[in-house]
Specification:
There is one protein chain. The two termini are about 20 Å apart. Helices cover about 45% and strands about 15% of the residues. The chain is globular. The chain has a domain at about 70-240: GHMP kinase, C-terminal domain (Alpha-Beta Plaits), CATH 3.30.70. The strands form two sheets. The protein has a four-stranded antiparallel sheet with strand order 4-5-3-6. The chain has a two-stranded antiparallel ribbon with strand order 1-2. α2 (about 15-30) packs antiparallel against α3 (about 40-45). By secondary structure, the protein is of the alpha+beta class.
Length: about 250
């Protein structure tokens, strides 16, 4: 996205942000070989300072939701485990979700799992006999439900409930989607033991990479020190920590 923005500016190409988002996704799909959706590129293109992006990846409807951190801070923790997304299980999970959609055609016409809501999860077992495919579908549908509830929590400035939903999200990513691994789980479950932690979960495609946590600002230093020690003891890896702000997306810096 940042390359697209730079070239668009340099050559006065006249591309819209959405044009560049779609082109960047296409580059990931066709050049890199990762069958990703459009979320990451959209977040980078349409990010807004101190706001979350509520996005329907099917329709591309989006809404900026204010994030009021109150007395809390965001902390990104990098496992420093080396991985390659195209070598990971990402494409496999995508195929498993596609298979669940195919099987659920017997229930109702569907294009995406996001067309189902959490009240329909109990219907899955009637149409999906494979326990692995069932778990993948359950994660996607329940995760979409958590996103809807998270938007409500943010609009109500209820950061505590938002943190609870982050925790539930990671548990589902671990148990139903199976994309975490010992490094990410160590950061999350050791992190939850520490004071001031409102919520913590993996972020990204999993199998390594990073977690994102909301921590009381007064406890941030202790969180980083104690989590680093616990992580090193259990995995032999030393994590890196970043304290980001929620900023605008890719654009020209004046």
């Amino acid at each position: 996205m940042v390359t697209a923005v730079a070239l668009n500016e340099l050559f006065s190409a006249g591309l819209s942000t959405l044009d560049m988002v779609k082109m960047s996704q296409k580059a990931e799909n066709e050049f890199v070989g990762m069958n990703c959706s459009i979320m990451d590129q959209f977040a980078v293109g349409f990010g807004k300072k101190d706001h979350a992006v509520f996005l329907n990846c099917d329709t591309l409807y989006y809404e900026h939701i204010p994030v009021v951190m109150q007395d809390c801070s965001l902390i990104i923790t990098n496992t420093n485990k080396k991985r390659g997304l195209t070598d990971s299980k990402y494409n496999e999970r995508r195929a498993e979700c596609d298979k669940s959609v195919e099987l659920l055609q017997a229930y109702k016409p569907l294009k995406n799992l996001s067309e189902l809501n959490t009240d329909e999860i109990h219907q899955l077992e009637k149409f999906i006999s494979d326990p692995v495919i069932l778990k993948r579908a359950r994660h996607i549908i329940s995760e979409n439900g958590r996103v809807i509830e998270a938007v409500k929590a943010l609009k109500e400035n209820n950061i505590s409930r938002f943190g609870e939903l982050m925790n539930l999200s990671h548990d589902s990513l671990k148990d139903d989607y199976e994309v975490t691994g010992i490094e990410l789980d160590t950061l999350v479950y050791e992190g939850r033991k520490l004071p001031g932690v409102i919520g913590t979960r993996m972020t990204g495609a999993g199998f390594g990479g990073c977690t994102v946590s909301i921590v009381k600002t007064t406890d941030s230093a202790k969180f980083m020190n104690e989590l680093s020690a616990a992580f090193l003891k259990k995995t032999g890896l030393l994590p890196d920590f970043y304290q980001p702000e929620i900023s605008n997306g890719a654009g020209r810096l004046e």
